[in-house]
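Notes continue from the previous slide.

Worked example: a multi-chain complex. Inputs as given:
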Amino acid sequence: MSYIEIEYPSEKALFYEVLKEQTALYIGDETDQSAVLANASAVIAQAFPNANWIGFYLVDGDELVVGPFQGKPAVSRIGYGKGVCGTAWKEDKAQVVEEVSCFSGHIACDCNTHSEIVIPLRRADGTFWGVLDMDSVLPGHFTEEDRVGLEQIVKLLDTSDLRKNKFK
Ligand code: SME
């Protein structure tokens, strides 16, 4: 499938409708978790030109390990409760950070980053399995509307039930 450039609406509700359609389109009926996250990070990156890092950290024991992403090389592992990502895990709650230098314990991967949003990934039964992490070069780039919109998008990404059904 060749990628078709999309003009994203500036109005947030519409923006997230289009982003949801695009994410679903590029997931298709894929059941491989890495493939789904890789394409999701690419679709989201196209929609956020001011984001400099878009990707996933996935639960691995008592750490998060980096998954598919778009952006500069990043830290591979983040402990439970560490940085913005580990805090989202510990608090089981999205983090919207207007200025990362003001977030105590923030783990810097790119010195150009000013703001960050981290959205928990939860399975249908509520189990936490990772986070979507996005950084921006602009201060205060991510808003509560983005949190609400991205929480809907990440619901599309868990393939564990699909894999179970496939091999039943
Ligand atoms: N800033 C994150 C670390 C990952 S990078 O942003 C890609 C954190 O504090 O958890």
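Summary box: Residues 12-27 form the longest helix (16 residues). The first strand starts at residue 51 and ends at 60.
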